[in-house]
Fold this protein.
Amino acid sequence: MRVVVKVGTSTLAHPTGLLNIRRVEELCRVLSDLKNAGHEIILVSSGAIGMGIGKLSLKSRPSDTPTKQAAAAVGQCELMYTYDKLFSEYRHNVAQILLTASDIEQPERRQNFHNTLTRLLELHVLPVINENDTVATEEINIGDNDTLSAVVAANIQADLLILLSDIDGLYDADPHQCPDAKTIHTVSEITDQILALGGGSGSMLGTGGMATKLHAAQIVTAAGTEMVIANGEHPDLLYRIMDGEVVGTRFLAKREEV
């Protein structure tokens, strides 16, 4: 299978913004094992700004663009150093790809991205993709890595997109307000009723929320790719997802009518 795995800041980092070493090590071990089993893995990783906040000892996520970009520049170095070190222990090479909206929206640049990504997979490299927060502005940014991972999955015709976050999946009501809220395990069609279940923004260090995940589901299912939302607290659940077990919420791909 060709699988895109998106990991959010809340999964990669402690609330301090500093790296959650145990969890990242486990994530890299599981992804390496899945590659060893023959799957093609693409990692879309948040965390650059969050880690930069930690390294720079900032008290909170900055609101101004220059400080966000400075934090991203610092944090991206640590992020890729960590991935390179951990995946190398399992004899896997990684490659960094940083994207802006222009790389996706302009046909020629989108094709160049597709060609590069395809060749990296042919060379058995594990691509690590993030938005280029260091240069992105409101006019050229993608906005969140849920959307970015969906665009990547659709572009490369992945079989599956897995969003790892700090939530168990899509609930039938707001779990913060409704203790009896239940996880919806399968979504066959993204209706207005499903979209209405999207809440606000995500964690303090991150930018996503359920609304962005539902938007990602719209993108990938329309392209024929299935998507799973699951809790990234224990990355070994990726094995269960790959085995087809019921984990989190699975969005079924749209099938073309014959």
User: Anything to note?
Assistant: The first helix runs from residue 9 to 12. The two ends are 24 Å apart (CA to CA). The longest strand covers residues 2-7.
